[in-house]
Amino acid sequence: MDTSAREFLVELLETPSPSGYETRGQRVWLEYVEQFADDVRTDAYGNAIAVHEGDPDAPEIVLTGHADEIGFLVKSIDDDGFVRPGRIGGSDPSVSRGQHVTIHTDDGPVDGVIGQTAIHLREDDGDDPEITDLWIDIGADSEDEAAERVRIGDPITFSSTVSWLSETRLAARGVDNRVGTWAAAEGFRQAVENGTEATVYAVSTVQEELGIKGAKMVGFDLEPDAVVVVDVGHAVDYPSAPSEKTSQMELGGGPALGRGSTNHPVLFDALRSIAEDVEIDVQIEALGGGTGTDADGFFTAAGGIPSQVVSVPNRYMHTPVEVIETDDLEEIATLLGAFASEAHTFTPFTVDV
Q1: Strands 169-172 and 163-166: what pairing?
Q2: Which one of 197, 208, 250, 322 is the catalytic residue?
Q3: Do 82 and 15 have their domain in common?
Q4: How many Cα atoms are found within 13 Å in the side-chain-facing hemisphere of 243?
Q5: How many Cβ atoms from other residues are within 10 Å of residue 135's Cβ?
Q6: Is the pTM for the entire model greater than 0.90?
Q7: Is position 225 within any domain?
Q8: In total, how many domains does the chain have?
Q9: pLDDT (tens digit, 9 = 90+) per residue, 99-143?
Q10: In angstroms, rounded to a whole number, what is the distance separating the alpha carbons of residues 257 and 271?
Q11: Which tens digits make up the pLDDT trace of 297-323?
């Protein structure tokens, strides 16, 4: 990964972007893609779109990932000044206790910690905590003192940032799914540099973690011929992983192509063919009941848009320490760029009946 792409990835991952509060992360993404886009724009809710205008007779292709990350928000403040959090998306209380967090206020960040009773003083019953069991200590002694620093509805993220575990392996919060928006931007850049005939849109959606909201908006707005969605999938190559619950994905095994349900068979075959052409190994992810990604929003929009998921294998999803192999991520960007450059050879994206 070259220096510019690496710096862009780190900046995306270190910029807080909880669902419903994605503005800062979207600015970072737009500043990068506008260097090689014919136009960039946002909609009313902050979905970010970059476009390369191609041949009018060539297909229109969307490359996309979602900008938002899970987190918390200030739900209430108790009499003693402790902040009671509510969920943003599928945040996991079982990994939250004892963590540093940042509350993002209009006046700047406020540091806090999610409290945990010392092991000496508690009797563990083995049950995972509920969100209502959590409290955040910001060093305030009263409700009034805390309310001077934070407001109800302020978003909260874990304070962890990027750690490079090796030259090509990183750990961070928010890997799900800033890596998808990175791949969409890089695939878009490569398609433009390849001189693609297609009109290509790079899209960074909002509020995927809240129910695939942004993709539903964008699908009706653009009505493209095909969409490739980049998200994360469960890598199960670690001790005690429940590998029987998902496909056998592993870090370093290459992009994972979703097969079944939402995933369009023509797009699946096209991406697998292109992967062979550019000598990229792929893994297959069986998805029989929906994908749980933005593809589920795009594929039923505007009368039906052929859609395909490409997954980045990811360990420890929805924790502050998600781990990926950046070689997999770079290969996805290459695959997207090559697909957008050759999309005209696979049209029409229709199923023969």
Answers
A1: antiparallel
A2: 208
A3: no
A4: 9
A5: 17
A6: yes
A7: yes
A8: 2
A9: 999 999 999 999 999 999 998 998 876 678 999 999 999 999 999
A10: 8
A11: 999 988 899 999 999 999 999 999 999
